[in-house]
Amino acid sequence: MTTAQPHHATADHARRAELDAARLLLDRMGITPADLLTTPRPRATVPTFAQYVPRVRDAVGEGTRRVYGSYWNRVVDSWPDHRLDEISPTDIKQLVEHTKTHVVTRRNNRGGRSAAEHVIAALRCLYRHAEDDGLIDPADNPARKVPKPRRLPSTRQAVPDARLAEIHHAAATTGDDPALDTLLLRLHIETACRRGGALALRPQDLDPTQCLIFLREKAGTVRWQPVSPTLMTHLRQHVEQRGSGPHDQLLRYASGRPITRRRYDHLWTRIGEALPWVAAQQISTHWLRHTTLTWVERNCGFAVAHAYAGHTDGSGDGSSTATYVRATVQEVAAALAALTDETHPLA
Asked: What Pfam families does the record point to (predicted)?
């Protein structure tokens, strides 16, 4: 009587037979196992910057194009016919220094540090796509090997109430559309939203029953943000008077044309002409965000300010604590009610 072989023994025998066959085939081809480990796999032809930058530009979002677009143009101007794998970290450092010394000098200039940071960030974004496309290895990515300059503390700070009143008065008494300008200021003061969030607002994003607006801001973040009944009334009147459809941009000129970021630029230029201290300190819409969030943090605590700002979990204090102390929309509404001295349906 024949004894059956165990299954694992049969499998081992078949495995050895396969390995012997593979070795025989490699011997006949003149290839050793070491050749398989040391010979690089063929890679797709690496494009030049002039060829690859337009592809990446079409693959990213509008916000990324706006931030990095001018720096990608500079890269193409500097290395139009260079392949991505022909650039060294030293080449990038030279481009960074050239950008710093040729940056447009503004009142708040800090020696070109911001421009240098953006050049490196734009190249890192470009090379991340090249890694994903299999054009270069992560270890060969030159943009990873160039550190960004250390970011200096922001000069922005909260605007005192008296100064804020001066800004509001200047917006209401100058310009060709004071109703629009004062609406913009109140929207940003109440919600601490960014310009992108305001420009993305649509009539269908208004919830008048609960006095909430739906904000879509950078990095794809979204949130329902409480607003006062007064602001909600003015937003709805703005929609009725300026004729935007449910899915169209809400904020518009009197002609019905949607506003752009240029409206903010003109607004602060005009306010700066009326109030020299605004021009001297380079005050902008983002200062209003600082003002509101500072007040909320001082009066309602960090967790509420974190939620009020629309920051994602884990940001803000750099720890995991924010995950466990998230404020609710009702707490944000209560902070808004205290800020505006108006009752809110959710507070």
From this structure: Phage_integrase
Per-residue model confidence as pLDDT tens digits over 290-311: 999 999 999 999 999 999 999 8
Regarding whether 178 and 228 lie in a shared domain, the answer is yes
Claim: this prediction has a pTM higher than 0.70: yes
Q: Which two tokens stand for residue 147?
A: 């550190």
Q: Is residue 289 part of a domain?
A: yes
pLDDT band at 24 (very low <50, low <70, confident <90, very high): confident
Residue 209 CA, distance from chain mean position: 31
Assess contact for 272 and 170: CB atoms under 8 A. no
Q: Which of 145, 174, 208 is the last residue of a domain?
A: 145
Q: CATH number for the domain including 204?
A: 1.10.443.10
- 195 and 141 in a common domain: no
Dist. CA 65–CA 126, nearest whole Å: 11
Encode pLDDT of 174-187 as tens digits: 999 999 999 999 99
As a whole number of angstroms, the distance between CA 93 and CA 99 comes to 10
Is the domain of 240 the same as that of 293? Answer: yes
Longest dimension (CA), the chain: 109
Amino acid, res. 17: A
Per-residue pLDDT tens over the stretch 248-296: 999 999 999 999 999 999 999 999 999 999 999 989 999 999 999 999 9
In one-letter notation, the amino acid at residue 175 is: G
Among residues 116, 145, 174, which one ends one of the domains?
145
Is residue 120 helix, strand or coil? helix
Q: How far apart are CA 242 and CA 244, in angstroms?
A: 6
